[in-house]
Amino acid sequence: MLTQLRNIVQSVAASSDLEQALHTLVQQTCVAMRTECCSVYLANAEEQRFELMATQGLDPSAQVSMAFGEGLVGVVGKRAEPLNLAYARKHPAFKAFPSTGEDAFQSFLGTPIIYRKKVLGVLVVQQHQPRQFDESEESFLVTLAAQLAVVFAHAHAQGGWQGAPSPVLLEGMPASPGIGIAQAWCDDSQPRLEEVAPACHLDTQGELDRLDAAIDDASTEFRRLRKRFDKELQKDALAIFDLFVHLLNDPMLREDMTVRIQQGDAATWAVRQTVEAFSARFAAMDDPYLKARAGDVKELGQRLLYFLIAPAGSPPPISTPIVLLARELTAGMLASIPRALLSGVVAEEGAANSHAAILARALGIPAVMGVSFSPAKLHQKTVILDGHKGVLMIEPAEALINEYQHLVQEEASLQSTFETALATPGQTQDGTRVEVHLNAGLSADSQIAINQGVDGVGLFRTEVPFLMQRRFPSEDEQVKQYRAILASYPDKPVVMRTLDIGGDKPLPYLSIEEDNPFLGWRGIRFTLDHPDIFLIQVRAMLRASIGLNNLKLLLPMISGRNELLEAKALISRAYQEVSQEAQHAGQSLNIPLLGIMVEVPSILYQLDSIARDVDFLSVGTNDLTQYLLAVDRNNARVADIFDALHPSVLHALASIAAVGTRHQLPVSVCGELAGDPVGASLLVGLGYHQLSMNTRNVAKIKYLLSRLPHERLVMQANQMLALDHPDEIRAATEAFLAAQGLEALVKIGQLR
């Protein structure tokens, strides 16, 4: 039976179109189950009906359509469970369709085809003999439907779903907010690393020369792109191109490629092997920011491959606005099309934290990543790209286009209004101060521009330089990097998180293999087991802060007071050493404030006891949500469960804020929730007066808070704590914001 299942699913998946796939399905299912009849009905969500799409045994010319809940098929779809009947006509829901010729069939077995809680259709088998299908037959059909659900869902995403609502809606990950309305333009001109086959050479020096030339050409291109955007972007976004140049000249990458060429590999094959090895290290990590660096390394490989192959000719010029669709979005693609003609970008691969996505946000270009699409079916079709929700609508109705065009006008007006809030202090309408900080750590060389609209850096990640070398960076190397960050924000606090590495983020020079890295040897657990590494990093941070005195230390993954006290002892030791050195040099060193990340649920129950041991708390809502809900936030199968507005998360946040109030301890939030209008309004209502977020959200959140009275925010947050479903909390908070005159922001979030 397993072999038959596999053969049916493989045959259906290999079909050229959905019509052929359904015809193959019903034919082979009849053979496998030895039945006289098999039919498949697909759900038309727009009209709320099930429609007969393919059959073996009934009249194929029959037009059968029944409402959800109508007939036996409707019952199966409505209940979302199998129905096994020996005498189908005796069931009260039975409805005859004489045109199908089904009068001859007595027994009926139907099972729903379900994908991510949605009923996509119903699969039915029938026989002349009046009998109930046995357990093995029912199990076979249920298993077959479950496996087919994935195939059908993919066909729907490719725009090949017959009976689907119009417009076809493709979903992905929102990477850059905004709305784009234009023709889809599919770019398939970039060479792919995966297409490079193993190859040898007879001229080692010639291949080395080709590699050197490709590296030079790619470096020149990135410098040119940096110069082009010099007046359009802030330095933190421009640092992306500096990072690419830095990586292209990284000794590790160059040496690995050189060694492979010297061993006989062609330059193209050497590039692929080296880049894939480096990219895999980042791809295996849990942290979304670091995970996205895999795409950056791969982009470098793609550009090297491009210059190695040197394709002849160039694609035709673009003269009208487009929404660019590509397998992978690169900085080069964004730069090759005039900004006025680029209404949005969609990528089949990539992450919302990739540097290409970051660049899209900096340029104000709506972007969605992880969208499965068929270039042949979408090229030059009218589309609406919603970068707020991460959806692409194919050939939408005129009324929907008009609605989104109106929304675009509202967004443009709002954005200019947002910008006026940048120069003002963050505060609510009635004057309650709310500090707005920046989540930083954009590039490996750590060039971050001063953002006058923020009160400092709420989170600076220190992992990247550790991950991009063959060895642990020296103390002096770290001092240079940290000094550049601290000096960029004079008189403003900069919170530096100590090394959050290990487990799911292994170093290339220190392999770590674990069955469950999410609960393994990472963060403070790793550094406490390596006090030498921890001391060097803390010493470097302290040395970098001499004369600036704006450093704040943050410890990740603290799960108990014992870890905190052990870390404090090492920090005290490092401080004594650096302080003595500073005194000998005629300098003074202030003791930095110390805080912990609140992200492991166990620490929630010890906050009162550790309040005297720390100077501040910082809540990482991403990991806190992940651990509270036991949901891997990067797993698409359970992504719909991950929700920072889950009641348990809100109650945890309220509890943390209450601890801060009791002990007069500053508490900040540095997760994604702080940069979301709904999240920010709830956080301030719960008692948070420090929010840290990505640059793109600063102006919006400052404007939002300036329009809301603190007293009303507190009342709203308390009311939300009484609700027991994330959707209810979101809808009620959006309604509250709309009632305060912020309906445009709410509408942006609601439209799909």
UniProtKB/TrEMBL annotation:
SUPFAM superfamilies named among the record's database cross-references = Enzyme I of the PEP:sugar phosphotransferase system HPr-binding (sub)domain, GAF domain-like, Phosphoenolpyruvate/pyruvate domain, Phosphohistidine domain
A Pfam family that this protein carries is GAF
Keywords of the record, alphabetical order, are: Coiled coil, Cytoplasm, Kinase, Magnesium, Metal-binding, Phosphotransferase system, Sugar transport, Transferase, Transport
Per its UniProt entry, which superkingdom is the organism in? Bacteria
Q: Where in the cell is it found?
A: Cytoplasm
Q: What is its EC number?
A: 2.7.3.9
The kind of enzyme this is, by top-level EC class, is: transferase
Coiled coil region boundaries: 208-235
Cofactor(s) needed, names only, are:
Mg(2+)
Q: Where is the GAF domain?
A: 17-162
Provide the primary localization: cytoplasm
Q: Does the keyword Coiled coil apply?
A: yes
Query: Per the record's keyword annotation, is Zinc-finger included, yes or no?
Result: no
Q: Which reaction does it catalyse?
A: L-histidyl-[protein] + phosphoenolpyruvate = N(pros)-phospho-L-histidyl-[protein] + pyruvate
Q: Which family is this protein grouped under?
A: Belongs to the PEP-utilizing enzyme family.
PANTHER family attached to this UniProt entry: PHOSPHOENOLPYRUVATE-DEPENDENT PHOSPHOTRANSFERASE SYSTEM (PTHR46244:SF1), PHOSPHOENOLPYRUVATE-PROTEIN PHOSPHOTRANSFERASE (PTHR46244)
Its protein name is phosphoenolpyruvate--protein phosphotransferase
